[in-house]
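2024-03-11 09:14:02 INFO worker-7 job=invfold-0412 stage=load source=structure_tokens
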């Protein structure tokens, strides 16, 4: 059986939020003493420190150096790929139950250390304590769920029936070889570990390249697991995408890529990777996710759900809500509730108790925000937010106000492109059919939601919406916070290639290829 870790949800149900906070505060003090440390890359079972390094600075306060990591070169990356290639035979021959056990053990270890891991992440990418714990929980869930899937599918080997008793047939799913794992800053534990576990547990070997803003959280996994695997099975290489990522995509020994990130990088990576050979490229590439609010909605619920989905972790989730379509006759009332809630959000140092929103990830994101606000003011109307925060606790970090915009032309960039910022565009509609059409009028198809107490409207929405992960009336968060097993996270259209959800029962098969074996006696 599989059970979600669900730390914060359980703390609320069991009335142990105080205990959660105490444990986090204690872990936070512990983590402080570790800041600024120098970390290695890991190639062929060896930790390697390099002279060329980069600083990982906290987006909350850039005076805080969280860690120093090696700037790996093309040669380092090639060494890592070669090591993974050499390790493939040994690792892929390890029985599946043994492979599965290694990840279950790692999940248990993460579960024991989860407050420390969440505190590190809060420093590293500016997640609040609750968001950071959600990330760690999801990583633990991925490891346990994929181990469980491998077990209930008995290593993906089974006999198949044949009408001629002399033909004995079987189907065996086999790993491909070396996978490059390219992961984003926003879920440096969950997404990095989810993709890497998918590749490894199925018998592939990997080179993991974490996002340069957030290597520590991903390193914690590589460090915990590499000694339990044959040397070279997992390699961990830090450095710019233009060097490490590029080498992974161009090297002929790499058999598959698992990527999560922007559409631009994903599409060009996919094209380059499959230019000369047919090879799997599993990708999740963002969204421009809509939520519909109809006249039959509970507006309080809708405002809560949308506020969480649009502004939780500063809109820096592929699942975040960036478009709202509200029915005309309830628009004023809804907008009033939403702006009121948004204006009273607690923005601050993310590790502090009761802070809802920390910083955005870096200077580039802040500059993107500033440009977006200028464009919003020119072409639409800013109803809430719109400023960079500069004083007090905000002075040394990248803090911005959550922003609500209306009256933009429907083809405007802010309505069409993914910004990955706390910016929400609101538009109005007359009839539900129009709302669904507007919601679908996007190149993406990741998450989508509706608020309505009318069953027929909800059914129509589920029937017609073109997105992979969809929700109705979710006040906790309209469209973010999918749970492993219950809500496999899947994108349609330009949001993803495979149509198979992370944390779902079809995920692992993507890292395997079938072999049909026939013996005639
Ligand atoms: C992402 O940001 O790439 O549903 C994924 C969610 C998370 C996944 C986000 N489980 O919000």
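2024-03-11 09:14:09 INFO worker-7 stage=emit residues=521
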């Amino acid at each position: 059986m599989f059970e979600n870790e669900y730390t914060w949800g359980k703390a609320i149900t069991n009335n142990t939020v105080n205990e959660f906070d105490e444990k986090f505060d204690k872990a936070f003090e512990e983590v402080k003493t570790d800041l600024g440390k120098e970390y290695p890359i890991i190639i062929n079972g060896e930790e390697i420190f390099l002279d060329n390094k980069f600083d990982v600075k906290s987006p909350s306060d850039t005076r805080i150096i969280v860690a120093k990591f090696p700037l790996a070169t093309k040669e380092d990356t090639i060494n890592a790929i070669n090591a993974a290639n050499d390790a493939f035979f040994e690792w892929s021959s390890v029985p599946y139950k043994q492979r599965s056990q290694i990840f279950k053990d790692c999940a248990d270890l993460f579960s024991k250390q989860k407050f420390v891991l969440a505190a590190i992440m809060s420093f590293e990418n500016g997640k609040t304590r609750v968001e950071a714990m959600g990330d760690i929980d999801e990583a633990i869930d991925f490891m346990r769920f994929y181990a469980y899937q491998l077990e209930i599918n008995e290593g993906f080997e089974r006999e198949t029936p044949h009408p001629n008793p002399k033909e004995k047939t079987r189907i065996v799913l086999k790993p491909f070889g070396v996978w490059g794992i390219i992961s984003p800053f926003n879920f440096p534990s969950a997404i990095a570990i989810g993709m890497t576990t998918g590749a490894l547990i199925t018998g592939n070997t990997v080179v993991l390249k974490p996002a340069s803003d957030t290597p520590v959280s991903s390193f914690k996994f590589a460090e915990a697991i590499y000694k339990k695997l044959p040397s070279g099975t997992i390699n961990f290489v830090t450095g710019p995408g233009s060097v490490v990522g590029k080498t992974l995509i161009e090297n002929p020994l790499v058999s598959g890529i698992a990527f999560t990130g922007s559409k631009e990088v994903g599409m060009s990576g996919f094209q380059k990777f499959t230019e000369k050979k047919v090879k799997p490229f599993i990708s999740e590439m963002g969204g421009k996710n809509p939520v519909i609010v109809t006249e039959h909605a509970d507006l309080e619920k809708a405002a809560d759900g949308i506020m969480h989905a649009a502004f939780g972790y500063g809109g820096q989730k592929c699942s975040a809500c960036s478009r709202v379509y509200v029915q005309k006759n309830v628009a004023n009332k809804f907008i009033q509730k939403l702006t009121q809630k948004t204006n009273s959000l607690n923005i601050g140092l993310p590790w502090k108790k009761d802070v809802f929103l920390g910083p955005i990830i870096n200077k580039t994101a802040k500059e993107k925000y500033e440009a977006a606000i200028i464009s919003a003011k020119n072409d639409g109307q800013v109803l809430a937010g719109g400023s960079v925060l500069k004083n007090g606790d905000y002075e040394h970090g990248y803090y911005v106000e959550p922003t609500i915009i209306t009256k933009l032309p429907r083809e405007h960039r802010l309505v069409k492109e993914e910004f990955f910022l706390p910016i929400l565009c609101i538009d109005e509609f007359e009839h539900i059919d129009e709302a669904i059409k507007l919601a679908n009028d996007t190149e993406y198809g990741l998450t989508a939601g509706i608020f309505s107490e009318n069953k027929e409207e909800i059914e129509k929405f589920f029937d017609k919406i073109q997105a992979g992960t969809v929700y109705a009336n979710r006040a906790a968060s309209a469209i973010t916070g999918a749970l492993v097993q219950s809500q496999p996270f899947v994108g349609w259209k330009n949001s993803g290639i495979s149509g198979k959800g992370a944390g779902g029962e079809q995920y692992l098969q993507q890292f395997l290829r079938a072999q049909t074996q026939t013996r005639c006696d």
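2024-03-11 09:14:09 INFO worker-7 stage=report msg="The mean pLDDT is 98."
2024-03-11 09:14:10 INFO worker-7 job finished
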